[in-house]
Amino acid sequence: MRDNCTDYRDLFLHDRAMMDTRAPVEFHKGSFPGVINLPLMTDIERQKVGTCYKQQGQQPAIELGHQLVSGQTKAERIEAWAAFAKANPDGYLYCFRGGLRSQIVQQWLKSEAGIDYPRVVGGYKAMRTFLLQTTEEAVQACDFVLVGGMTGTGKTEVISQLNNSLDLEAHANHRGSSFGKRATGQPEQIDFENALAIDMLKRRAAGQQQFVLEDEARLIGRCSLPLPLYQAMQHHPLVWLEDSVANRVERILQAYVVELCAEFVAAQGAEAGFTAFAARLRESLANITRRLGGERYQRLAAIMEQALQEQQVDGRVDTHRGWIEALLVEYYDPMYVFQRESKSGRIEFAGEQQAVVEYLRKRNGG
């Protein structure tokens, strides 16, 4: 049998297959990319065993667990674990702390299916701690530079053209603004943090020591940046991206209207998808009513409503430019002017997209 694993770096660096034997409720709160949940106990079974443990102690709880997971139920779970082990001969299994649950699964696989399968020592908790430390170490050891700029200047486009960038919005599945929700949901906070740490781990292992990030607020939608990273970002140098209002309007029209509508339609079908898309736009505007002020909100909402009606009838999106430009000029730009002034001491270069990309490539040594 292969040894039980304590090399967490190897697990994540090489995307080792892993079987999570925790209950579904634990798994859905946070796990690791690509991991399969094949629990020893269901949520209800785990709850019963936990209650027994608190009231009567460990041994009665273990006995209750064996009663609950027995007979056909036990056979079906062993069959699922065995199938995973056969399909992933170089993989591992784990539970929360690498204790009783993963040991029981390991023992049953051996005794009932004749399969020796190693577990991760320390389990989920040890791997999670390792990834938190990975983020902190990267923040302390690496060079970071941020891409800032007004809404719609194409910061994400710059990020996508660089081989040393870290796309925070892609990890959060959110475009980062009040209108940034995608048709598909965001990851759980722990999943977001874990995936981000693994991304940095792999890049550093490949020799990358500089990261280009978009200048983000602490929250990207409902995903919160890891505190050490966010705190460090308040001091990193900035490259400021510039573009005309007209170009920014077109870029936002494409991303937040054309592409977002297509996302909803692809996920839900033409009619339901458009309805959901329209509701999302209305909701996004309504969410900033207080900051817009009542009169301005009503004016922009009326333009948006007319634009949505036209888009639904014949697919034209021209009228959307009205509320987009007004929102940029009247709402977002004044905020960004203030931000630029407050961060001016950290701005080391400013220019349009091509110049910014070339500068960042040279900054990274080519």
UniProtKB/TrEMBL annotation:
EC identifiers of the protein: 2.9.1.3
Domain of life of the native organism: Bacteria
SUPFAM superfamilies, per the entry: Rhodanese/Cell cycle control phosphatase
UniProt KW keywords: Selenium, Transferase
Cited Pfam families: AAA_SelU
Active-site annotation: C95
Catalysed reaction equations from the record: 5-methylaminomethyl-S-(2E)-geranyl-thiouridine(34) in tRNA + selenophosphate + H(+) = 5-methylaminomethyl-2-(Se-phospho)selenouridine(34) in tRNA + (2E)-thiogeraniol; 5-methylaminomethyl-2-thiouridine(34) in tRNA + selenophosphate + (2E)-geranyl diphosphate + H2O + H(+) = 5-methylaminomethyl-2-selenouridine(34) in tRNA + (2E)-thiogeraniol + phosphate + diphosphate; 5-methylaminomethyl-2-thiouridine(34) in tRNA + (2E)-geranyl diphosphate = 5-methylaminomethyl-S-(2E)-geranyl-thiouridine(34) in tRNA + diphosphate; 5-methylaminomethyl-2-(Se-phospho)selenouridine(34) in tRNA + H2O = 5-methylaminomethyl-2-selenouridine(34) in tRNA + phosphate
GO-annotated molecular function: transferase activity, transferring alkyl or aryl (other than methyl) groups; tRNA 2-selenouridine synthase activity
Family matches, as CDD domains: RHOD_YbbB (cd01520)
InterPro entries noted in UniProt: AAA_SelU (IPR058840), Rhodanese-like_dom (IPR001763), Rhodanese-like_dom_sf (IPR036873), SelU (IPR017582)
NCBIfam families reported in the protein's UniProt record: PRK11784.1-2 (NF008750), PRK11784.1-3 (NF008751), tRNA_sel_U_synt (TIGR03167)
Described function: Involved in the post-transcriptional modification of the uridine at the wobble position (U34) of tRNA(Lys), tRNA(Glu) and tRNA(Gln). Catalyzes the conversion of 2-thiouridine (S2U-RNA) to 2-selenouridine (Se2U-RNA). Acts in a two-step process involving geranylation of 2-thiouridine (S2U) to S-geranyl-2-thiouridine (geS2U) and subsequent selenation of the latter derivative to 2-selenouridine (Se2U) in the tRNA chain.
UniProt record similarity statement: Belongs to the SelU family.
Protein name: tRNA 2-selenouridine synthase
Species this protein is from: Ectopseudomonas toyotomiensis
Gene: selU
